Amino acid sequence: MANVNQLEAILPENTLKTRVPQEPVPRAVKPAPSRYRNEIAKYIVHRSPDCDLCGKCVEFCAYGVHARQPGFKYFGEPKHHLCIGPNCEKTDRYCVAHCPRGALQIQENPMFKVLGDFRWTADLILATWRMAESGDVPPEAYDFNYECGNSGGGFDRLRFKFPKQPPVKVRADEIDTSIVLNKRGDDRPKIKIDVPWYGGGMSFGSVSNVTQLSKARAAVAFNTFTCTGEGGYMERMRPYDDHVITQVATGLFGVREETIQRVPIIEFKYAQGAKPGLGGHLLGDKNTPAVARMREAVLGISLFSPFPFHSVYSIEDHAKHIEWVKHINRRALIATKVSTPTDVDMVAVGSYSAGTHIVHIDGGYGGTGAAPDIAKKNIAMPIEYAIGKVHNFLLAEGVRDKVTLIASGGIRTAHDIAKAIALGADGAVVGTSELVALGCVRCSRCESGRGCPRGIATTDIELSAKMDVEWGTQRLINLYSAWQKILIGILQRLGLRSISELRGRADLMMHLDYTNDAPA
Amino acid sequence: MPDKYHIKTRPVPPLGPRIGKHGVVDWREDCARCHNCVKKACVYDRYRQEAEYIRNLNVIEALYFDCMGCFSCVQDCTKGILCLTINPEYEKLGNRYWKPDIIKTTWLQAETAKIPVSGAGYRGPFSGQGFDAMWTDMSEIVRPTRDGIHGREYISTSVDIGRKPPFLALNGRKSTAALPPLVTIPMPLIVDLSSPAHTLPKLDPIIEQTAADTGIIAIMDSRYRPIQTEHLENIAFFLGPDSPAVPDELLKKTRLVEIADSPAVLKRINALKIIQPQIVVAVRVDLTAAGVNRAIELGALPEVEVIHLVADANGNELTTQTPRFLKDLIRQIHTALVEKGIRDEITLIAGGGIALPEHMAKAIICGADLVTINLPLLVALECHLCEQCRPGTPCPARLEKIDFNYGVGRMTNLIAAWHDQLIELMGAMGMREVRRLRGDVGRAMFFENLEEETFGKLYGKRKPA
């Protein structure tokens, strides 16, 4: 039998041994322009050969669309993406009206309708890019709808009922957007994050190491979290351990005691919203040498995370899992990620009773590295339905204030986060929006071959090199910053002092498809 | 345990030009000839393949549209002269119900036999009409059957067609009464008659071979004669009111036959049973305004074994001003038969508007035992559903010239892909038997119910659409 000293050395209290010095990342907004030569624009400015180079357009344009380098005679290509389009006509700075030769013309970019889809409209993608560039809300003149998409249901039909005047005047700097992740009142740390969201699990394999690191660094800057997903824990992420959630999922890829001991939160992933009940699937093409090494798997074969945990067939089994991890890491909180079946409320309560701190429900329209199309569209309910169902059930069971409810799967904007909270969540997990901030166009080609042509969701060395960590971090910091401003704006208009006051306040919203006359 | 149902597939590339969703328009003027797009920007190497593809194609009007829509070349072009566009040919595919993305995904499955997989989240509308207004459930933590598609656990998709006795009367170990005949097929799908607008005799032997290869059944016109007698097990002749009779020796070798509904339906069933006592007779009921009641009425007749409910090609009720959708009609008929306590005795087959594999699963959840399809098999042959199948009008898919093996391969691939996707949905639900999925609306979530439970309570009444 080992002596006491030897036992102490492997006991969980010793987990601090696995720590490396943590690296701070400043929460500073800096411009992070697009990494592409040509930006996709909503409007196109045509300059005909009639132009006599008088330069009046440069003088009038308030947005810097027309540019001529000092000392140059000819204009460069107009910066189409800066043009606000026909909205400018109402102002006295409309270049088309002021051009003495009538040489300018503005038209909607035909490419605009190719970009985006029902859930992520072109407007939403461009607005997210704009926020990631500037760290601010897109100027009103651009008329971007950055609040919601055009899916015709759920968040896209919910609106806040802002009073003409806020009932209470609250200064922006008085508003608290933080949430507490441990409400159980146990002996584990009361971790608080500064914004009501954290980054979703994306494994190394589904995304590049640059993407993972950028997400982790942005999480440090905003005192929130990112999640490793199920694909191992890169050594390069260790300077950010304090802001990392590591995932224990069914394939147990890259899960080791030491990775569990490094982090403040461990997430059990039972299912993923985009492919509930089906488990994970990394196609062979993306299983590169680095991925195979990290996952301790054979190079080039498809890697399945079977559904579900074959050691968990009941809440009692789940409790056993939680106990196991709690023992290995005595300072960690436990998050349980489940998808949204019809009995999601029962699952949530069961998970709470098993000892979880965070119940994370992932709706049917969530993002994914690869999922069957039939699953993404058809299996499990959209998150908008699940939030209220779980929130109300937790209330009825009298445990709502003992557990943190986090929603994900189709949360694209700051408004979506606010709506999810008003429906009853404490906070949200975001994933796709982060990728869009990094330049994703949602072409859906993350799954096969070399992976993402934009260099985000790929493990191909050449493609990953299209983006660097500094730039990626800054884009995410900028997006987070803009979102925080939007959230503060929403709370200010509603006269609320903190984001937690918004929780469960569905009465502050209306639904465009309903009569909105239900008795309170 | 029976042998695992497996459909043998092989890749069958398209004969015609691929019609992709996106295309890159190169304005040419002002091109710097830097070849950024060719050498660097396109990670799929499409620019290089384009010339090769067009060179090898034997049709002159071919345009190469296999762009993946990633915008990389557009955004990296030195002169900014590239523009991504939606291919107008793509937008012309299909119609309002059979949307271009349905046609495209069917083509892909017919070519590869694989389940369509993509990255990023769902891109479509929140919900929609018909089958798009419901979601299938899944099982969290308990009851997994994911392994079905990886061979570790068997998910049965076989169904029995015919009348089942409400109970067994046993004398010792033997049944006291003769059990009615049953036809068992390995997946809940049969091929329906071609619609008159899309009838092409050349396709019949291809359908016959596909049905035989996949073990399912194809409903054929009574005039059709099989290419191989052994395939009669996979053929169900349709006997319309004016159809010529099928020779008795052929009928005796079939397992299933379908007759049109008529006042003399029982007489006709009896006549067929005299020729072939082991044959199962399905009655085809058009889902007109009177169709629902007629189906319920037929279901109560002990002589009727199978009812085949047929909506129009878009899943709508026939001959009414405000048609209801197939899913609601199935639910109504199924529920009425359940209330009468006779649902388990009768087989319901539903057809019309089944365009995607999820429709098959959803129709079964709503109460059908199995479904019929015809148009998806036509689309598998690269049909555009342009509705111009007339002599003298050129068919964009050149259906009159297709090769037998190509046709069988494409149709078989599609059926295999549908089967795999049915297993995906059942695996997620934790179901091991498609027979148990029938009418199990508890394993589905309906838009109107979820809306009422979630938003109805909060925001009053839903406004009419």
CATH class of the largest domain in chain A: Alpha Beta
CATH superfamily of the largest domain in chain B: Aldolase class I
**Integer average pLDDT of chain B:** 90
The class by helix and strand makeup of chain B works out as: alpha/beta
* Overall radius of gyration of chain B: 24 Å
| Molecular shape of chain B | globular
How are strands sequenced across the largest beta sheet of chain A?
Answer: 6-16-15-13-12-9-8-7
Helix content of chain B: 25-40%
Number of strands of chain B: 17
Give the DSSP E fraction of chain B (strand runs of 2 or more residues).
5-15%
Assembly state here?
Answer: heterodimer
Mean pLDDT over the full residue set of chain A: 91
Draw up the topology in text.
The complex is a heterodimer of chains A (520) and B (465).
Chain A: H1 4-10, E1 43-47, H2 56-60, H3 95-98, E2 104-108, H4 122-134, E3 158-160, E4 179-180, E5 192-193, E6 197-199, H5 209-221, E7 226-227, E8 244-249, H6 257-262, E9 265-269, E10 280-282, H7 289-295, E11 303-305, H8 315-328, E12 333-339, H9 344-354, E13 358-362, E14 371-372, H10 373-378, H11 383-396, E15 404-408, H12 414-423, E16 427-430, H13 432-437, H14 461-464, H15 469-494, H16 499-502, E17 509-511
Parallel strand pairs in A: 6-16, 7-8, 8-9, 9-12, 12-13, 13-15, 15-16
Antiparallel strand pairs in A: 1-2, 3-17, 4-5, 10-11
Chain B: E1 22-26, H1 36-41, H2 46-56, H3 72-76, E2 82-86, H4 88-91, H5 100-112, E3 117-118, E4 134-136, E5 159-162, E6 170-171, E7 174-175, E8 182-185, E9 189-191, H6 203-214, E10 217-221, E11 235-239, H7 248-251, E12 256-260, H8 265-275, E13 280-286, H9 291-299, E14 306-310, H10 326-339, E15 347-351, H11 357-366, E16 370-373, H12 375-380, H13 404-429, H14 434-437, E17 444-446, H15 447-459
Parallel strand pairs in B: 9-10, 9-16, 10-11, 11-12, 12-13, 13-14, 14-15, 15-16
Antiparallel strand pairs in B: 1-2, 4-17, 5-8, 6-7
Helix pairs in contact in B: 5-13, 6-13, 9-10, 11-13
